[in-house]
Amino acid sequence: MAGASATDDSSASTAGMRDDDRSLSGESLSEWRSCDQGESGSPSTSPPFWDTDYDDDDPGPKPSELYGRHTWRIENFSKEKKREMKSEPFEAGGYKWYILVYPQGCDVSNHLSLFLCVANHDKLLPGWSHFAQFTIAVGNMDPKKIKYSDTLHRFWKKEHDWGWKKFMELSKIQDGFLVDDVLEIIAQVQVIREKVDRPFRCLDRPYRRELLRVYTTNIEQIYRRFIEERRNKLTKLIEDKIRWSSFRAFWSAIDPRTRHRMSREKTDIILKVLVKHFFVEKEVTSTLVMDSLYTGLKALEYQSMGKKGRTKIAELDELPAPMVNVDMDIFVLAGDVITLLERAALEPLPCQPVSPKDDKCSQSRMKV
């Protein structure tokens, strides 16, 4: 069976997965979903790009059009004798998928094994490949005990299924997961339409908000580590009085026209480097990082437009003054190079306080 062979790779099982791909506790996820539901009734006053999958410059399909969800209810589960079972096919991103379950475990004992599979994989043409983020959950009569796992995977002809051999222990099935001997399995699938030249929207809005409740801290750590590594190098340069004075003298000696030219760069050149650095296929947070970079780029564009008097968005007034502006397809340093370098090295990083309505969610994330 293709489903069994493809999952022999230890990275496809919970036991062999990295921390970012671990199975998430139902308690934390149910709490952040409760918080999310509490927010849904409030109208948004954010800029139009803040929490949407809309892109003026992109005529292709939006993340919401590449997302699918399927619920599979298996009746008389405790009496099931089959080694493996398949759900009905469902569509996501223009392709058919199905859930594959091993009630007694796939190459493991005493565990429920769950996988997401591409339907009709035997008919796929050589070279077929699509990248997807997906979440599989097993329902529970107590919402706080729902079992979730999510991951990223590039599906192709020889690796057309992916999931977890040790999704959960069979001994725990009776702890509210069977209701009238029915096991409910929910799959969410987001096909990713990748770009290599600039940050891009990856996730359907509700799915993105769900994942953010879990991985916000991880994303903040990724950015802080990236910034602090470069700040440390810059700080060492500034603290070295001889080298810093030499650089200042070098920069001052350059003629103004050359300094002006060196303070500008095409956006595509910078953005390609960012995408290459931050979009790591095996990291479950990569899609959220791309979404946040997309949002940051849009915020920078709106701030730059505001400086020129073309638009005014109150929410952006509270953001720190940017060190870079966007002028058409060019990044332009927003001031003197020496001043900006000193500011980049010495200015404290912003700290985002947790709002009261998110406090419970934040605490539940810490339990994961």
Automatic annotation (TrEMBL):
Compositional bias (Low complexity): 1-16
Region (Disordered): 1-67
Domain MATH: 67-189
Family matches, as SMART domains: MATH
Signal peptide range: none
Pfam families: MATH_2
Name used for this protein in its record: MATH domain-containing protein
